[in-house]
Amino acid sequence: MRKRVKNKNFNVPNTLTVLRFFLIIPFVYYFLGDHYVKAVVILAISGLTDMLDGLIARKFNQFTELGQMLDPLFDKLTQAAVAICLAVKQPILIPLLAIFVVKECLMVTAAIILISRNKKKPSGSKWYGKVATVMFYISFGIIVALQSLFGKDYLAVSITLLSITAGFMIYAFVRYAKSYFKILHSDDPQYNLDIQEIMDKKKNR
For the chain, what are the domain ranges? Predict the structure, then answer.
């Protein structure tokens, strides 16, 4: 009788990652319905799961290929939801929020090219990317807090905060772009991605 193998993808970090995806729906619902406090609470929970899944994965060595793929994807989807909601409420901020959308689209495209065409591993998350993400959430939190407490849109504050955030995003994008081209032109085997080997390992589990 064949021994049943436990699916390593079903662990706490991956569960938290998936939960972050499902939190997008109530966040959008509350924010567009002007329930800003509830929207911020949902976003705070989402940010907490983002922090905890990485901590737990490192502490208990529960890294999986699925988790490493879903974590940045759901981060980008959450940030996209926040950007769209802000654009709906404050259309004048669309040019600044467009920087975020363009950056993320280019990074996803670059990762796909590395994997599919060049069979290489994309660069993982770096500190400058994390800083840009944290700035994005801080800016959003301050903007929403001002709306909730005073019932007004402080456009100057919003533009200032999002301009600073956009600056961090552009800096992060430039650094990631350098990393992308380094990996693209490198002959170092550490960047090689043997998809067939990965598939064979899965079959033999």
Answer: 1-89, 93-205
Residue 162: exposure state from Cβ atoms within 10 A (0-12, 13-18, ≥19) = buried
Residue 153, SS3 per DSSP? coil
Question: Amino acid identity, residue 7?
Answer: N
Question: Per residue of the chain (205 residues), what is the pLDDT tens digit?
Answer: 444 434 466 788 888 888 989 999 999 999 999 888 888 889 889 888 888 877 887 777 776 766 666 777 788 788 888 888 888 887 877 776 787 778 778 877 887 777 776 677 666 667 787 788 778 778 877 877 787 777 777 778 888 888 888 888 889 889 888 888 888 777 777 667 655 444 444 445 4
CA distance 55 to 51: 6
**C-alpha to C-alpha distance for 113 and 84, rounded to whole angstroms:** 26
Q: How far apart are CA 130 and CA 107, in angstroms?
A: 14
